[in-house]
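Example record used in the benchmark description.
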Amino acid sequence: MHGWKTLQVDGFSLWTNPRTKVTLSAAKASGRVLFLGDPIDVDHAESRVTEIAEQISQTLDRLGPEEAVRQAAYLAGRWTMLLLHGQRQPSYSTFAQSPLCWIVPDTMGSQGSFYATTIKGFVYGSSPTLVAAAANLSRRKDLSAVTKEIKQLRPRGVTYLPGMMTPFAGVRPVMPNCLLEVDRRNPGAATHRRFWPWEENQRTDDVATVYRDFRERFSAYLGLIAQRPKVGVSLTGGLDSTTMLAHLYPHLRSSDFTFTYYNPKDSAPSAAADVFEANELASRLGIQHRVLQWRNPSADSPYAEIHRRVHPHLYASHGAAHAMWADLPRDFTHVNSLAGEIGTTMTRVRDYREPDPAWYARFWLGDNFTTVKRYLDSFDRYLDYTDFSHASLAGYDQHNVAYWELRIGKWGYGKFVDADQSHRCIPAFNDRRLLEIMLRLPQEHLVGKALYHATFADQPQFRPMFAPTDGRKTWVTGPTSL
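Model output (structure tokens):
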């Protein structure tokens, strides 16, 4: 961590990458608030982090930490919050110390949250590698066997480690919708607990009303992101990114741009279609469009060293990350639609029995994992760790929440981190209130992507059509197009 910034706060030592935005509220009798990253308060149209931190600090002072967590949970943007609070004790220094620290990730845990407890204390970081290095923890002895077995059981498709498992013994994740409670006086007793949902899901089949709320919230959030100096939009031919662009488009400026990856090794027609369809739409709208060639770096490339340091023990695909690093401007704000499926649906096959280890193993990577003791044991611990049950989910669909927490919290967040290596990514769907609005619709409307189609009805210039000959999408042109 040579060259990183250091900060001492209430008995905690903080090391941050030079590009990390650190915002600390003023100290109050009850404690203080520290933000890492870029919170956005859509409810109050506020993106100044100092103002947001002070508002949360005032809530902490007046109403306590639980209410401060609830207020922060409805911040959009991309951030991690540390609440430093508790009975303030005398200190030899001029600053009193708060013995309690609650660590709260943003809606999707998009910056990564990992921790370890040791004999000497407590370590928290944005990657398991950093935590393991700081705590002097070793790689799991069974890591190679686990990763090999996973690829044998699932030769194709996305794979990632199950449940709480990370590449390092003793390093655990803080999952989305959960927080970590740490007491400096007894750091080994750190507690991971669920804090969301607070209220029963308000299910309705009134698509028009839900769409109105969705449009208002999505446009307001994206408009606040677009106030940043330069914006780049990840665009494909998919419905998630097209809907995102429809609500972002009124806020874009001539200097903003779109971009699409192309993997020349991918022979599927859809790979090329993504590029052509995104380019046609951007061209019609008058927005710049760039095509990035998905490729791995050469062995002597500086990026190869970056990747080795970020992922020293577990291989991660990095063709897209390298293309962004090599081909895009530095320090723009990248808006993407990854995880929009939380609010539509990914898993088509539903099994609504009470979640058990076999249910979660099947959801994770498929039927092949439901009889392997290693994974059943892993998810048995994970269910308790996240308090994942029908009762705790308050009427939210267990498949959508599992996708939100496990798939995004253990795999998807890494895609946002990839972007941070050259610029700053703020995910378009990283807003709890937006997701709650989307998830009010029953499952048939989620599968049918009713809110996306309502967007295209509202803004027909963005509407995709499916050609009956080959199933590929084409764009509507004519009097209603721009």
